[in-house]
Write a structure and sequence with these properties.
Helix content is 35%, strand content 24%. It contains 14 helices and 16 strands. It has helices at residues 12-22, 56-65, 80-88, 90-93, 107-111, 114-124, 168-177, 240-250, 282-287, 291-300, 304-310, 321-329, 336-345, 358-377; strands at residues 4-9, 29-33, 50-53, 74-77, 131-135, 147-151, 163-165, 182-187, 191-202, 207-209, 212-219, 226-232, 254-263, 268-274, 316-319, 348-349. Strands 9, 10, 11, 12, 13, 14, 15 and 16 form an eight-stranded mixed β-sheet that branches. Helix 2 packs across helix 3 (80-88) and helix 10 (291-300) packs antiparallel against helix 11. 44% of the residues are buried.
Length: 378
């Protein structure tokens, strides 16, 4: 059995991959990028060897220090910044690891630029919202309202940089108070709902697996993570073939997600592609399709197509219980009775797993401790 390296932050994104592999009796080596000495993700029982580093560059140093006695360990990335640093070190790592990304070094980081991504999407025929690229201090003339701000490069920004603005004054304040220098500003689209296509690309898009879609029921502010329903593609009429063409144009291999809005005008608007495992991806695993394991199989020469064919997708509700409670119950936007009702219909959670409970309890303790610390400081 070949080794696997899972690299990401102290976040349920990383945890979802660790567990997905663990369900298949693969214990990955995990590099957690965190300033915490004891990140909660590191308590998963499925981890073989754990490394905790404060920066993405130090994660690369760990990979470079690995003995070449093992035959091409498989790498899975769980954040935009990790995907970018792997991409920017592709040539130094590709002869020793089975990497996600593109053959050409720097290609994925180039395509993380949201305006570059939008241009490619438009060339393929996707609908996209009108957009503008703004630097701090730029004139806002020509920007239409209402709009939404996003870091031009996700790896350079934070979730708090994503803001809905109703006026030029709000936009100016959001941009100048933000954590990054460049933003993509998009016209705010009135939506019926938002959805994701979470999938896997093999050999630069030669084979693209998109088993179903996640419909976000209750998105947490500033992120697409939220209480969601994952279901088969039947009846959605999503632009699947255009997605595959987009991936082939990029030349991407690995786990991914593509985000869309279904507008009230009936159009599907391409928002962005994430070149990594998605934070919601545990929904696909729990629905019956283990994409991280399929990526592993494809890279070690196992018959992933037969595994996929034998898998059965079942619709499922999934809740990010920590974020959902913090964003909706604690703020009074959702009653505890309604929240418990949603818990009862959820088939899986992003933090809690009865087969691997330790990360949940350590994460809960960290969350409570952080809230007490903030309250005492205020």
């Amino acid at each position: 059995m070949e080794e696997v390296f899972v690299i990401g932050g102290d976040h349920h994104n990383t945890l979802s991959v660790i567990r997905a592999l663990g369900y298949k009796n693969i214990r990955p080596n995990v590099i957690i990028v965190s300033n915490k000495q004891k990140p909660y993700v590191g308590y998963s029982k499925y981890i073989n060897e754990k490394y905790v580093v404060p920066t993405d560059d130090l994660a690369i140093d760990i990979l470079k220090s690995i003995s070449m006695s093992n035959n091409h360990p498989v790498v899975i990335t769980c954040s935009d910044s990790v995907s970018s640093v792997i991409d920017r070190n592709h040539d130094a790592l590709a002869n020793r690891f089975s990497l996600p990304g593109a053959i050409s070094q720097g290609r994925i980081t180039e395509m993380m630029d949201k305006e570059r991504m939008t241009e490619l999407a438009q060339s393929i025929g996707f609908c996209t919202p009108p957009s503008w690229v703004i630097n701090k201090g730029d004139s806002l003339d020509g920007v239409e309202m209402p709009c939404i701000t996003k870091p031009l490069l996700s790896k350079d920004g934070q979730k708090t940089d994503i803001c809905i603005c109703e006026s030029k004054e709000e936009l100016d304040s959001a941009v100048n108070a933000g954590s990054c220098e460049k933003y993509q500003i998009q016209l705010f689209i009135e939506k019926e709902f938002e959805y994701q296509l979470i999938g896997l690309s093999i050999n630069g898009g030669e084979d693209v697996v998109i088993p179903g879609f996640s419909r976000c029921i209750r998105p947490c502010p500033g992120t697409n993570t939220g209480f969601l329903h994952y279901e088969p593609l039947d009846g959605l009429h999503a632009p699947i073939e255009k997605c595959k063409e987009f991936i082939r144009e990029v030349g991407y291999s690995g786990l991914f997600s593509i985000e869309f809005l279904r507008g009230k005008d009936g159009k599907d608007y391409f928002m962005e592609m994430n070149f990594r495992n998605d934070g919601n991806a545990i929904c696909v695993t729990k629905a019956g399709i283990n994409l991280p394991y399929l990526w592993y199989m494809a890279n070690v020469g196992l018959d992933y197509k037969s595994e996929l064919k034998a898998s059965e997708l079942k619709p499922i509700y999934v809740m990010p219980e920590f974020d959902d409670f913090r964003c909706f119950v604690l703020t009074g936007k959702l009653s505890i009775k309604e929240w418990i009702s949603d818990i009862k219909r959820s088939g899986a959670f992003m933090e809690y797993d009865k087969s691997d409970p330790s990360p949940f309890w350590h994460g809960l303790f960290d969350m409570i401790k952080g809230k007490i610390r903030r309250k005492m400081a205020s």
